[in-house]
Design brief:
Strand order of the largest sheet: 6-16-13-15-14-17
Protein name: peptidoglycan lytic exotransglycosylase
Distance between the termini: 15 Å
Number of helices: 12
Radius of gyration: 22 Å
Keywords: Cell wall biogenesis/degradation, Lyase
EC number: 4.2.2.n1
Pfam family, one: MltA
Enzyme class: lyase
CATH architecture of one domain: Beta Barrel
Shape: globular
Strand content: 15-25%
Mean pLDDT: 83
Order of helices and strands: EEHEEHHHHEEEEHHEHEEHHHEEEEEHE
Largest sheet: 6 strands, mixed, barrel
CATH class of one domain: Mainly Beta
């Protein structure tokens, strides 16, 4: 469904495989195109790759397939050949008509868990459809007539109008049977393929960091989070990360710009890569408060991957590289952390925003709050915002020379975000939410992927 004209808050991701060129990073509150202004980057990619998942503005690469990944039987399903009448094209690939029985695990998912995400996207679509623009119906009809997927916001809103009215009529607490019946009666599954017919792709993960912070510098909290300096617009590029840490002129320009203080420099790097996060403050009386940290700008210096640098230093192999592995190296080598951080010359500035309801996620590119475990970021040239998507992948697991059998990750999600590293037809970034568990899972997510778009009949 249609996207918002303003960017979403930052939240997450460092996306891409630990190989070199296929993917860059994304945005939405977490710094995608220029370090996600809202959602962030796929954690695995931004930290590991030399190409940033969301904190740079490289040219969009062409749709290239990800490196081969071992795809478990639960994800593999040889696609049948399709006639022209069963295919719709997109700028990134094509949609091929499928059957509900083709969706791995369709009968096992608790679909009501995705209802809040679908409801938010439908509210957005209905607002656009009722905004007075009458061209949407014609655009949607033209897309069907020409065998394409109508990607414009008005065409999408028109296509979803009747279905979303039914979603609104059902209300916020449907039964499992109601959701399943609605989806199967009103929607048609379409298998998503690349232009070359590949059905396998890449799933990465992102999240919204939750960091313990202090309002003042203390013996423990010595790492500042900075608001934008006054001369940022007039001095481009601004000082590098290393210069900010060492030059008196840079430090003077940031004096008084401290939003809060962290105890761990790795936490600052993490939230700068993600592009947004949450700050938790504990008052002397034990009272806790949480605010949101939103992307405000950066120093216009190039992003450099600390993960790639650590691989080159022999800290671990590319296959072992992950955010948990980087954190572990930092704990074991505290005397070299400053050296490692200086490798990434980019430095991100923030602004603090209120967080009235901590249960609500950061806003994604569609302009709606993200739902943990049910929102994904996609390439909007392949899947329109607001589209329900059936995701077939596997759960991320710690690296092992003898990995255990893969556990299926098969569920209904909604396309509500995007990112500069999220490029390609079969490509998604999975929003894990916030907190420590989310960080670990997002940092390990580099999984095989298949996708089906669920679109109104």
């Amino acid at each position: 469904m249609p996207t918002s004209s303003s960017p979403a808050p930052s939240a997450s991701r460092i996306s891409s495989v630990m190989s070199s060129s296929s993917f860059r990073s994304r945005s939405v509150g977490l710094c995608r195109a220029t370090l996600r202004p809202r959602s962030g980057l796929s954690l695995a990619a931004a930290l590991i790759l030399g190409t940033l998942a969301g904190c740079g503005t490289p040219p969009r690469p062409t749709d290239s397939a990800p490196p081969p990944l071992e795809i478990p039987p639960s994800v593999q399903t040889p696609p049948p050949l399709a006639s022209d009448a069963e295919v719709r094209t997109t700028p990134r690939g094509r949609w091929v008509k499928a059957e509900w029985r083709d969706l791995p695990g369709w009968d096992q998912d608790t679909l009501t868990l995705a209802w809040p995400a679908l409801t938010k996207s439908c509210d957005k679509a209905l607002t656009a459809a009722n905004g007075g623009n009458t061209s949407g119906r014609g655009l949607a009809a033209a897309a069907v007539a020409t065998g394409t997927v109508g990607l414009s916001p008005f065409a999408v809103a028109s296509a979803w109008n009747a279905t979303c009215r039914e979603v609104r009529r059902i209300g916020p607490t449907p039964t499992e049977a109601q959701v399943r019946q609605l989806l199967q009666q009103r929607l048609q599954p379409w298998r998503i393929e690349s232009a070359e017919g590949r059905t396998d792709g890449l799933l990465t993960g992102y999240f919204e960091p939750l960091l313990e912070a202090s309002r003042t510098r203390t013996a423990r909290h010595t790492v500042p989070i900075h608001a934008m300096p006054a001369d940022l617009a007039s001095r481009k590029p601004w000082y590098t990360r290393g210069e900010i840490d060492s030059l008196p002129a840079a430090q003077a320009a940031l004096k008084g710009r401290e939003i809060a203080w962290l105890a761990d420099p790795m936490d600052l790097l993490l939230v700068q890569i993600q592009g947004s996060g949450r700050l938790a403050f504990t008052a002397p009386d034990g009272q806790r408060s949480i605010t949101r940290l939103a992307f405000a700008g950066h120093n216009d210096q190039p992003y450099q991957s600390v993960g790639r640098w650590l691989v080159e230093q022999g800290a671990f192999t590319l296959e072992q590289a992950s955010w948990p592995a980087i954190r572990q190296w930092a704990r074991q080598n505290p005397q070299r952390v400053k050296e490692m951080l200086a490798v990434n010359t980019r430095y991100v500035f923030f602004r603090e925003e209120p967080l009235p309801d901590p249960s609500v996620g950061a806003v994604g590119a569609q302009g709606v709050p993200l739902t943990p475990g049910r929102s994904i970021a996609v390439d909007k040239d392949s899947i329109p915002y607001g589209t329900p998507v059936w995701l077939a992948s596997t759960e991320p697991q710690p690296w092992s020379a003898t990995p255990p059998a893969p556990r299926p990750l098969q569920r209904l999600v909604v396309a509500q975000d995007t990112g500069s590293a999220i490029i390609g037809a079969v490509r998604a970034d999975y929003f894990w939410g916030w907190g420590d568990g989310a960080e670990d899972r997002a940092g390990r997510t580099k999984q095989p992927l298949r996708l089906w778009a669920l679109w109104p009949k």
